[in-house]
Every structure is written in C-alpha cells, then in structure tokens.
Specification:
The protein is an alpha+beta fold. Helix content is about 30%, strand content about 25%. It has helices spanning about 10-15, 20-45, 65-80, 215-225, 240-250, 270-285, 315-325; strands at about 55, 65, 85-90, 95-100, 105-115, 125-130, 155-160, 165-170, 175-180, 185-190, 200-205, 235, 255-260, 270, 290, 305-310, 310-315. It has an eight-stranded mixed beta sheet, sandwiched between helices. Strands 12-11-13-17-15 form a five-stranded mixed beta sheet, with helices on both faces. The N and C termini lie far apart (about 40 Å).
C-alpha cells in the first residue's frame, strides 16, 4: 500500500506519469467519473427508489435490477456524449451499440456485477474491458468485439464496498485507487498489486455441490483435507459477488471458482464482460485463470454473451484446480 508520508497521486496524474495513451486515459477517466455517480446511488440505495427489480429481463434471462439499469444507461450515455470509442457492448444489452465509427477502441462492461446483493448491503462492482479494432475502414460489427482476452488493451473494475476502489491494468502491472469522499477523486492507494503465489482461501458456491463435476468435488475435498505438506485445509469465503470475491483474493491470495456443472454445461459467468477483464488483471498481478483445461485469455469467443467455466486466483492454486478438472 501507499506510504502515508508520501503525497498521493490522483488517478489521472498516475495515468499520465505511466505513459498511458491519451485515448485510453480518457476512457478510464470517464469510467472513473461515472463510477462516482454510481457510488452516490449505491450509498443512498435504501433512501431512494433504486432497490429491487425493474420487471424486465436481460438477454441472459435474468431479472434486471433498477441499479443495473441506472449504471448501464449512465455509462452508455456518457460514452455517447464523449464520442471516445467506436462502440460498446454491455452484459445488459442484447446487441452492440455503435458510437463513433472512426474511433479505434471498443468498450465492454458489466455495469453492476452482483447488483442483486445491494438490498442487503453487500459489495458490488463495475467491470470493464478495452479492445482495439483491427480497422476503422469498415462499419463496426459484433465481430470486432469477438477477440480473445489476450488482445485487451486495458481492463479493470470498481468495487463499491466499505471504501470505493478502482483497480486497473494497462499491461504494465496492476494499480488500485481509493475514492476520497472529501475530494471526490481517486488516489493511488495500492501500487503494483501482486497476488500471492499460493493462498489459503477458496471461494465457491457450495450450494451447487449436488451438480458439481467429479473434478470440482475432488478439488474442494482436497482443499478441506488436513494436510500440512499441501498447506490445507483452506478457509471457505464466498460473498456471491465476483468483484468482491476476486478483490479479496487478489490482495490476500486464494482461488475463486464458478465451474461448469450438470446444470450449466458451459459455465455461467460471461467471458467478455467478467472473465476476460478479471483474467487480464490477475495475470498482470502474477496470478492465473483457466476454464478447467485452457487459459481464459486464449479462448476465441464465438458470441457476444458467451459463458465459460471460470477458475481464477493465485497461480499455484489455479494450477492445482486445473489438474483436478483435467482428470
């Protein structure tokens, strides 16, 4: 963490000093600014008509929460106004949204991950990913967005918790910024985040255990075994909000799993909006991610809302989990 005796860098100052390309700097700045508005709504959620569902369902067939809709609309409107990207794709939208056909970059995001938890005051977040178009000569199409995660230019997330933090990578390490409410700005608080090689925490919804594959069942049993040589047993910690579970494990070490099972043969989390951006971050921090047999960032997406099995966290833990799933 940042030395308390040094002057804290604002987010934009850090981006400039790190040599981040101006267009990427502006995109991240708009996300940061928008997240302040989302944070303000989150903090007042119990005092305004922003809790609960809208009555609509998104493209995945899930109930749309009012705060989901607010965050999605806010981000879309801000990028339409600023004309910084060629187009956007969101977990909440059926199709891509074309914005400026002459712009090189594309933005993908989950406007509010874990939003169903806001009713009970649990941490939630915004996840984003930035890609570059191969060419601006042709109209923007869905194919422009169907790139493997290894092509990401930058990715990050904002977590709305006991404090609000923005974490991002542009391929040169992972850095975290905490929102100072008195300044209404993000300041560098966690420079050069590095995830431990091996953790002591596993995060999985054990309520789904009846549908687990044999590989998942055996791996979780392995983590619960009392074996000093293997460093087990692990502690089970599951919040049910990807951003929150991932953020804890990024800082402390461990593994998060949302694997495929008998009910969800292709997994449940979205490759483009959740798994790719988090995988880019974790690899930049020294960790790893896998779908149980393959590196997440190497998966070539075939559709906009593609789902995948997801194992992510400390490198040694993901290697162990992948070994069990391959068996």
């Amino acid at each position: 963490m940042q030395n308390p005796n040094t002057e804290l860098l604002r987010l934009e100052e850090h981006l400039v000093s790190s040599g981040v390309e101006d267009e990427i700097l502006q995109i991240i700045s708009v996300i940061a600014q928008s997240s302040k508005s989302i944070n303000s709504k989150v903090l007042k959620a119990g005092l305004s008509d922003i809790l609960g569902a809208t009555g609509e369902k998104n493209v995945q067939g899930e109930e749309v929460q009012k705060l989901d809709e607010f965050a999605d609309t806010l981000l879309r409107d801000e990028f339409v106004k600023k004309q910084l990207v060629g187009g956007i794709a969101s977990e909440e939208m059926d199709n891509i949204y074309s914005i400026a056909k002459d712009k090189n970059y594309l933005l993908l995001y989950d406007p509010l991950d874990g939003s169903s938890n806001i009713d009970v005051n649990v941490s939630i977040g915004t996840i984003f990913s930035i890609l570059k178009r191969e060419s601006t000569e042709k109209p923007i199409s869905e194919n422009d967005f169907l790139q493997p995660g290894i092509n990401q230019i930058a990715s990050g997330y904002v977590i709305y918790g006991s404090s609000t933090m923005l974490v991002y990578t542009e391929g040169k390490g992972v850095h975290g910024f905490t929102l100072d409410p008195s300044e209404n700005d993000f300041f560098l608080s966690h420079p050069n985040i590095s995830i431990p090689e091996k953790g002591k925490i596993f995060s999985i919804n054990e309520g789904n255990s009846v549908n687990w594959t044999e590989g998942t069942s055996k791996y979780i049993s392995f983590l619960k075994t009392d074996n000093v040589n293997e460093g087990t047993p692990y502690s089970g910690r599951y919040i049910g909000s990807l951003v929150a579970d991932f953020h804890r494990n990024l800082l402390k070490g461990g593994i998060f799993l949302y694997p495929k099972d008998k009910k969800n043969q292709n997994g449940k989390l979205r490759l483009l909006y959740e798994c790719n951006p988090m995988s880019y971050i974790v690899e930049q921090a020294g960790g790893a991610s896998s779908n149980g047999s393959k590196r997440i960032l190497e998966i070539i997406p075939e559709e906009l809302h593609q789902r995948t099995s997801f194992l992510i966290g400390s490198k040694q833990d993901v290697q162990d989990a992948t070994r069990f799933h391959k068996k």
